[in-house]
Design goal:
The protein has 73 residues and is mainly alpha-helical. The chain contains one helix and no strands. It is rod-shaped, with a radius of gyration of 32 Å.
């Protein structure tokens, strides 16, 4: 009976260690994913600002070029 209880306690401890290791692994993956998500958000924001600035510059240039043209009539 004593040996069965000891074996059960060893088994229980081993399962707790495995569960903790899996939890730590999942926690690490979640932290890495969160970090990657933040980086991607920053990159998307940067790209959107660059695109917005480029389209404004393009529109301003188009207006400037078209204002210099003389209508043939």
């Amino acid at each position: 009976m004593e040996s069965a209880m000891e074996e059960f306690h060893r088994f229980e401890e081993e399962m707790e260690n495995m569960a903790k290791a899996e939890y730590d692994s999942l926690n690490h993956v979640a932290e890495k994913s969160r970090s990657l998500g933040k980086t991607m958000e920053k990159a998307a924001t940067f790209a959107a600002k660059k695109w917005s600035k480029a389209s404004m510059n393009s529109a301003v240039k188009a207006i400037y070029v078209n204002s210099k043209k003389v209508h043939p009539s």
